[in-house]
Structure formats: structure tokens, C-alpha cells
């Protein structure tokens, strides 16, 4: 790699690591803290989900206008806004219980999400520009730092919360994210502008829509676990907030460890990307059904089973997720989109938007089902979504294979 590529990789890794720590620290203690203030499980799910909804809108808009705004400016400004909102969120425990607390949580999360969407959407586009021939490998490498952020965030947040109270986890991680602003300001290259392409044209491709549905189911499962797993573990498994943070390592550790391996496989053997999505999606569906597990299995909730299924979820989500971005870029180029920052901005914006849609759906709908029924049935719904995505992709693969056979005959 050239010096510029190495520096870009460092910058992207710092964004992934610090952003994911800021995002994941809420899981072990915030749902229970909000519950003490009289917030319902459905509203807790909305507080988690509104972040993803605003990221969805921000990704679509910013991905469209990345050429005019500038990728580097979007990353730096996004990190600055997100770090400030993270620190601010740490002082919301001073607010009185009830409606005011909920409204301030929602507003802060919305602004934080817009900053996050600017940074992440631009980072995907810059990665595709600097590493045009190895995008899956690079994304796989960066997912190591995503995994590290997800691994360290919950136990770090749980420990800081138990040791120093509600404010310190957010102040610490917000300052950590702010430290990446000057680093990225110095390191990142200025992208060369290119012509514009259309979101509508990109979304008319059936293959793109199927991949988007896969991405949606993956992020929906992660968002669901963020909003509901901690309360389930505290009430059903009798774990403390600190122990819940350690429990979440079972999800993020295999995800981060397997990412570079699947990234290399995806780049070296592009033909297996579809099968990676199918196999990973099937494993995700089965593991969510046994996470609770579903009441129809008549199996009692046990700690070892929950940990095992979280490990399978982390590994299978990684297998399904890593090939999706590279496959979307390849599909865009196959359909006449030029190889430039405009196309990369559209694809990264669409990817981030669909990911965010799942992150909104998972906590909100999952939180509502959990409140109405229980965690076990809600996890089963996530498994059913993953299975449906597998069926669609598998049907597409078979249809393509039949057409090829017909052409040969």
C-alpha cells in the first residue's frame, strides 16, 4: 500500500472504533436507567431507533450531495457534531423524569445521528475511492475496529457507569471521538469531484434491492439486541450491568475477528459473495430463534445458550454483511454507473440508509413486541426476517443459474 492508503486506513479505523464505542456504551445500563425514570420498553426502543431513522434520512441526503459538500468536510464536521452530542447525552440524567427526559433524549440522539451519518457515509465513499480493487478486504479490516468498538463499548460503559455514575461513560467516549477530528483533518485526502448520478436509477435494480433487504435484516437484528438484550439478561438471567457488557462481547468478538477473513474471501472469489449471504443469513435466522429461545421449542432460557447463540449471530452477521457493499458497487458498475466519487457516494448513502432503516425497525418494533409479548417471541421475529432474506437471495441465485443454462443450451 502507498503512504496515502495506509494513512487513509488509519483514519477510517479511528472513525469506526471511536464511533462504535460511543454507540455501544448505552446497551448495558441506559435501558434500565430509563426504566427507572418511568420510560416504557417501547419508548426505550424508540430512543434507540430514532438514531437510526435520522441516520437513514441523513445518509440519503448526504450521499446524494457528497460531491458538492466534500467527503473530507463531511467526515470532520460529522465527527465534531457527534462527539458533542455524546457528551451532552451524559448530562440528561439531571433532567426530571417523564416527558422532558424522553424529548431531550430524542433530540440529542437525532442530532448525533446526523453527524454520525455524515462521517460514516463519507468514510465508505473515501474507502471505495482510495481502494477501488480491494474494497471488501479493506472493509473487512475496518470491521475489526468496528468489532473492537462494539466489544469494548458495553463492558467499558458498564464499568464506568458502576464506578462513576451516568455521566462519565458519555464524557469519556465523547472526548475520545473528538480526538479523531484533528487526526482526520490532517490525514484524509481531498476527493476529486465527479459527475452526478441518480438514486432513483440505482434503486430500480432488482439485485440492489435484494442486497438492501439483506442489509436491513442484519442491522435490524443488531438494533433489536441493543434495545432489549440488557433488560432480558438482567431480569431472566440475573446479570448485573457490568456482566451484561461482558455478555455483549459474545456478539461483537466473533464479528470483529472474522471480518478480515471474509473480506479477503469476498475480494478473491467474487462469485461466492451470494452464497456467503445465504449461508450467513440462514445461520442468523436459526440463532435468533434459539436466542430466547422461542417458546415453541419448550427450552428454558439459560446463560450458556444465550452466549452460544450470540457468538453464532456475530459470526453469521459478519459472513452476510461483508460482501454486501462490494456487491452493490459491482452491480452499480454493471448497470452503467461510472467509477467515481458520485457513484460511491450514492452506494454508500444507500447502504447507510438501509442499515439505519433496520436499526430503526429492530429496536422500535422489537421493543414493542417485547413489551406486548416477550423477548423470546421478538427474537423469533428477527430470525424470521433473516430467513425471508435468505429465501429471496436464494431464489435470485437459482433464477440466474437457470437463465445461464438456457443460454448455453
Automatic annotation (TrEMBL):
PROSITE patterns: MFS
Source domain of life: Eukaryota
Compartment(s): Membrane
SUPFAM superfamilies referenced in this protein's UniProt entry, alphabetically: MFS general substrate transporter
Main location: membrane
GO cellular component: membrane
Positions of the Major facilitator superfamily (MFS) profile domain: 8-409
Entry GO MF terms: transmembrane transporter activity
InterPro entries, per database record: MFS, MFS_dom, MFS_trans_sf, MFS_Vesicular_Transporter
Membrane-traversing stretches: 7-30, 42-61, 73-92, 98-126, 138-156, 168-187, 208-234, 246-265, 277-297, 303-325, 346-369, 375-394
Membrane topology: Multi-pass membrane protein
Gene3D superfamilies: MFS general substrate transporter like domains
UniProt keywords, alphabetically: Membrane, Transmembrane, Transmembrane helix, Transport
Protein name (record): TUB like protein 4
UniProt source species: Sinocyclocheilus grahami
